[in-house]
Specification:
- The complex is a heterodimer of chains A (278) and B (329).
- Chain A has 278 residues and is mostly helical.
- In chain A, 75% of the residues lie in helices and 1% in strands.
- Chain A contains 14 helices and two strands, in the order ααααααααααααββαα.
- Chain A has helices at residues 2-34, 38-42, 55-62, 66-97, 103-115, 118-132, 138-162, 166-174, 179-190, 192-208, 211-216, 224-230, 240-260, 265-269; strands at 233-234, 237-238.
- In chain A, strands 1-2 form a two-stranded antiparallel sheet.
- In chain A, a hairpin with a 2-residue loop joins β1 and β2.
- Chain A is globular, with a radius of gyration of 23 Å.
- Chain B has 329 residues and is mainly alpha-helical.
- Chain B has a single domain, classed as MetI-like (MetI-like fold, Orthogonal Bundle).
- Helices cover 76% and strands 3% of the residues of chain B.
- In chain B, β1 and β2 form a beta hairpin.
- The mean pLDDT of chain B is 84.
- The chains are: A mainly alpha (278), B mainly alpha (329).
- The interface between A and B is large, with 95 and 101 residues.
């Protein structure tokens, strides 16, 4: 009896693993492709057994622009998300504790920025950027991404600040602490998980962002996702070794983030509106 | 060493009261204002407002203004006031309606399949807490939704590729038939939609897991004792507890699906069967450089998004009200 149950349990777990692997298979195929030669990728029938080579990666990092793409992606995501988190945290505290007039309206408008089709957001901004000559500048791109990361961060952080009891503020005030002391020394340490979640998911978002970078950026500020489209073709065909090796390198940070910060995934994917763990 | 110790007390009073320079007076006044309860909320919100106004309100106003004009970037001198002609143009445009109905089909089938598949698989994954390597398995399962759509589109271009793609090799070997997916006008749409389903089914699995986590254990145990059938369990216990989270998930997915652009951008082979509404907007604004016209379309989409957002928040509020009632009861 017990043995049969154990056997069923194993089958169940194997089934779940198979489902997970099916979803991962297309990604695995491109990662495998990164270790093949050009002929290997184009081989008919497809090669499943082959001698892996690291040539694609050495070739990738010898390309003149790849270092720049990587650097741009890292700089832009880190800088814009850092700005956004600081700005959003201060606002989240104010929204949560003082509830100034128009709080609900502002929160609504902030959320709707994220609901608008990206092309509709980028049309007016590109008009403004063309006039101010902010196109293809680090300042323009970083500030735009910061703006785009703020709504999400405000929502997520307000939820976390709401979760900290007002008693902490009151106690600190009675003991002579200033508001700034409360914000940074009392509240901040308690909402560290919220900060981590907001940081990670904004990073992933900016790291993955394609359309804004394509339409507002340019030669100097090309990020990795855009490089997939600008460097797609070489010698009249799709440059699959570049795509495969670049994609493999590019996917490492998000996958690692998912592995280590899995418990924030739900909060991160729902703008902080659904709490819990999976 | 000893000398230094001896001289210290003599300096102390001097350190305690620094001289009152104008700069110090200024910073002291600043900190007092910053600490003032009347100014603090405004001060804290100012940065967000600045970002919001510069990068959102001003451009949007600009765009609203331009939507009443005929304006093309290639011809900056031709700025003719048209009134609402851009809007009536869009309403009369056949391509626009095709794009819109295509988008609705996209959202309906995409979100529909993702929801059903996600709920079934999420239900399967419920109770996998003691699964070996669970964290890694979930990471692999959830990876599709954090890959940039551009890359996902390229991965599937490699898989769908007619000459050396793995899918074609498979169909040729098994059915003896070539399968030209992205090149065929009828199939391209569904081939791209399949990629969207692959990417976002994990999201619905995640939402389903979250929804199931909110079902109280005690009630499930009671159902076990009462020997409720699994169908009744779902109907009477699981759904009432999880419907709010599921609704939020479906709505978020609907909104995101409505916006789809990147994925189509790199997968679409010339042709019109994959042109969703957002794709048409990008073409008009950044290829035809028809700014007035595309501003009008952008505003229509903006209003749609605001409507979606209000529905989302309405459901969210219902949820928190229901929870408040529960705790009060």
């Amino acid at each position: 009896m017990n043995r049969a149950k154990g056997w069923r349990k194993h089958a169940y777990h194997i089934l779940l693993w198979v489902i997970a692997l099916i979803f991962f298979a297309p990604i695995l195929w491109i990662i495998i492709g990164a270790f093949k030669t050009t002929d290997g990728i184009l081989a008919v029938p497809p090669q499943f057994v082959f001698t892996p080579t690291l040539d694609n990666f050495t070739d990738l990092f010898q390309r003149p622009n790849v270092g720049r793409y990587l650097g741009n992606s890292i700089i832009m995501s880190a800088a814009s998300v850092s700005i956004a988190i600081v700005v959003a945290f201060l606002a989240a505290y104010a929204f949560s504790r003082f509830k100034p007039a128009g709080t609900n309206f502002l929160l609504f408008m902030l959320l709707s920025i994220r609901m608008v089709p990206a092309a509709a957001v980028v049309v007016p901004v590109s008009l403004m950027y063309a006039t101010l000559q902010w196109k293809d500048t680090y300042f323009g791109m970083i500030m735009f991404y910061a703006m785009f990361s703020i709504p999400f961060s405000v929502w997520i952080l307000k939820g976390f600040v709401d979760g900290v009891s007002q008693r902490y503020d009151e106690t600190a005030l009675i003991n002579g602490g200033s508001r700034w002391h409360i914000i940074f020394r009392v509240i901040l340490p308690q909402i560290a998980p919220g900060l981590v979640a907001a940081f990670i998911f904004n990073l992933i978002f900016v790291w993955n962002e394609f359309l804004f970078s394509l339409l507002l950026g340019g030669r100097d500020t090309t990020t990795i996702p855009v490089s997939f489209s600008t460097d797609l073709y070489s010698d009249g065909g799709v440059d699959w070794t570049f795509i495969a090796s670049m994609a493999t390198v590019y996917m490492i940070p998000p996958i690692l983030a998912m592995l280590f910060f899995q418990k924030y995934l739900l909060v991160g994917m729902t703008f902080g509106t659904v709490r819990g763990e999976v | 060493m000893t000398q230094a110790k001896l001289t210290t007390p003599a300096r102390l009073p001097e350190l305690a009261v620094p001289p009152m320079t104008p700069l110090r007076r200024f910073t002291m006044r600043l900190t007092r204002i910053a600490d003032d309860a009347r100014f603090l909320p405004a001060l804290l919100i100012t940065p967000v407002l600045l970002f919001f106004i510069i990068w959102n309100v001003i451009p949007t106003m600009w765009m609203i203004g331009l939507s009443f004009y005929q304006y093309q970037i290639t011809m900056p001198d031709t700025l003719n006031f048209l009134g609402i002609e851009n809007y009536t143009d869009i309403i009369r445009d056949r391509a626009m309606w095709q794009g819109l109905s295509r988008t609705f089909i996209w959202v309906f089938f995409g979100v529909g399949v993702q929801t059903i598949l996600g709920m079934v698989l999420g239900y399967l994954f419920w109770g996998s807490k003691d699964m070996p390597g669970r964290r890694l398995a979930l990471t692999l399962l959830f990876t599709p939704m954090i890959v940039t759509p551009v890359a996902a589109g390229l991965f599937f271009r490699l898989i769908y590729e007619p000459t050396f793609g793995i899918l074609n090799w498979f169909t040729k070997a098994v059915f003896g038939q070539e399968l030209l997916l992205l090149q065929s006008p009828e199939l391209a749409f569904w081939a791209v939609l399949f990629v969207d389903i692959w990417m976002w089914t994990p999201f619905m699995i995640l939402i389903t897991l979250a929804a199931l986590a909110s079902v109280p254990k005690a009630e499930m145990e009671a159902a076990e004792i009462d020997r409720l059938s699994w169908f009744d369990r779902i109907r009477f216990i699981i759904l009432p507890h999880s419907k709010f989270v599921l609704m939020l998930g479906i709505l978020l997915r609907t909104i995101d699906s409505f916006k789809t652009l990147d994925l189509v951008y790199l997968m679409a082979v010339p042709g019109t069967t994959t042109k969703l509404i957002a794709v048409l907007l990008r073409e008009q604004a950044f290829e035809a450089l028809n700014v007035g016209w595309s501003s009008a379309l952008a505003i229509i989409l903006l209003l749609t998004a605001i409507a979606f957002t209000s529905i989302y928040l309405y459901i969210l509020n219902l949820n928190s009200k229901a929870k408040a009632k529960e705790t009060a009861a």
